[in-house]
Amino acid sequence: MSNAVIADKPRSTLRGARLPKWAPYAIAAGSLAVGIGISLAAGLHSNIQWGLIAAVLFVVGTYVIAARVEGPRQAKDRIATSLVWVAFLLAVIPLVSLVWSTISRGVKVLDIYFLTHSMGLIADSEPGGGIYHAIIGSLEQVGLATVIAAPIGVLTAIYLVEYGRGNLARAVTFFVDVMTGIPSIVAGLFILSIMLMFEMQPFGFAGSMALAILMMPVVVRSTEEMLKLVPNELREASLALGVPKWRTILKVVLPTSLGGITTGIMLAVARIAGETAPVLLLVWGNSLINSNPFEGAQQSLPLYIYQQYANSAGSGAAYDRAWAASLTLIAFVMILNLVARGIARWKAPKTGR
Amino acid sequence: MAKRIDVSGLTAYYGSHKAIDDISMTVEPRSVTAFIGPSGCGKSTFLRTLNRMHEVTPGGRVEGKVLLDDEDLYGHGIDPVSVRREVGMVFQRPNPFPTMSIFDNVAAGLRLNGSYKKSELADVVEKSLKGANLWNEVKDRLNKPGSGLSGGQQQRLCIARAIAVEPNVLLMDEPCSALDPISTLAIEDLIGELKERFTIVIVTHNMQQAARVSDRTAFFNLSAVGQPGKLIEIDETERIFSNPSVQATEDYISGRFG
Ligand SMILES: Nc1ncnc2c1ncn2[C@@H]1O[C@H](COP(=O)(O)OP(=O)(O)OP(=O)(O)O)[C@@H](O)[C@H]1O
Ligand SMILES: [Mg+2]
Predict the structure, then answer these.
(1) Is the same domain home to A85 and A124?
(2) Residue B61 Cα, ligand 1 centroid: separation in angstroms?
(3) Is the minimum distance from the CB of B136 to ligand 1 under 6 angstroms?
(4) Which atom, in ligand 1's list, is nearest to the CA of B48?
(5) Distance separating alpha carbons of residues B106 and B135, to the nearest angstrom
(6) Rounded to two decimals, what is the model's pTM?
(7) What is the ipTM of this complex?
(8) Structural domain for A305, as ranges
(9) How far apart are CA B185 and CA A290, in angstroms?
(10) Helix (H, G, I), strand (E, B) or coil at B64
(11) In this complex, is the C-beta atom of B109 within 8 Å of any C-beta atom belonging to chain A?
């Protein structure tokens, strides 16, 4: 009797038919081939069209095949996975192509000479010249903006999280929200109106102030989130040791969240490093080196890129310089991000044994 | 220097919610006093009023008197920060500072208060870790992060941190509730040693633990959910567990509660 059961070997209820590991790749390759085939047959020339056809084929094909072989529940699982993959590819393609075109066009004129010379007396349509003056300007303007915005932003966040109660805190939160929504050109106009009141000429620091206005709410928001992540138990542990509140914040809360706060500041810096509008209004641009941010027009990288395109009447040399400057800007932001990650990892609360 | 605590007419609020009502008791120096009672009856709240941690909670408010050797903790001009230096606290969940090493965790109280001599620091750390029965386990890795210890070790680290500042009173809120029986035993032994030097108040849900470690036991109760908690009685632990004077205490201890 029991032998018969064993001989019968009823199918395990835990194990169903599975598609092999390579199935998704095969389906992807198949749908790509079919997508290209359809496009050729129909005479479609756009890359986007066959790409989209292939994507749709991939999702539908996965579902149909999985439904036949594995059953409806696994098919739903697979369709979700394939949708995520398609979305991922759709998101990555523009990014990769942006990085690719910037690098391939940017490296043409990017060399030490380019990084260490200004435009001097070279007209925008001629070849030669460099971005030294723009790098100096960008570093100074962004640096000063950070020096203003980061401490104010962090202190505001500390107030909101650690001390803020009642109406004042609510008002501050509200204004930070409003500030987050200020378009960069409006921040520029605001500073410009003040400059006009005092009849001042454009200078680098004016741009820094506008950038600081843009940066501050971002710093406040990210720092706030980081401080909220610090467990209350740590604050109480410190307070219960008889440590005053301000020292608790300084020595326990801030160190615990330092990594996250730095990352937030770096991301805010990266965001304002590419701002063009307020710089155009307040700093004007300058083809000569001016390393004094408090007097006279300065250059900045995003503004340089814009001016190379706008003022050169289609000269290839100017376009090359614009791309090289873009590549420099992206590299600058990337380096900042890497530094932020490094600091975050280095300062993260340690868990190892 | 252990100190006596005299509480009279203490009422604590969270905003408009009255959590404990009109509590009076005396906690003897150099002894262990255990608080028992059902969940939500305000044991933690009461404990936190004893070192002015209650007011750290938004909306936390206290009425009444807590005398620490004749000085009212809630008196005019008393600095809560100084109170907390005299009345230390160990929490239910071990909470070592994650950015600090084992050494720095124990030294934290002294360092953060800015009141220490550099040369003495290492001695104090060693003494406190020995006092918390942790020295042998960590003496080779004092520079490793405190969060890398096991839960029981972390709790003893927190005790070492609390006794490093030499408080007069040590409050412990369910210090063993997250620990295994062996770590629990280690901490109970430790409490027995610590009571030579400190006044100890411990909250526990474990009747046997209260019976084992405490000299006096206080039973708290609340008449209904949402009602403030009240002190039902406080007496010698032996009497509470053998022959309490209130029926509710006996019911609770023998498990006939509710
Ligand atoms: N932060 C808070 N805000 C508002 N009410 C609170 C807060 N903490 C505690 N309470 C309330 O105060 C009362 C007493 O809580 P408490 O934590 O002191 O109880 P407990 O006796 O320690 O309970 P347990 O044994 O579960 O730890 C409860 O009704 C609780 O809801
Ligand atoms: Mg409690």
Answers:
(1) no
(2) 14
(3) no
(4) 18
(5) 11
(6) 0.86
(7) 0.92
(8) 116-347
(9) 72
(10) strand
(11) yes
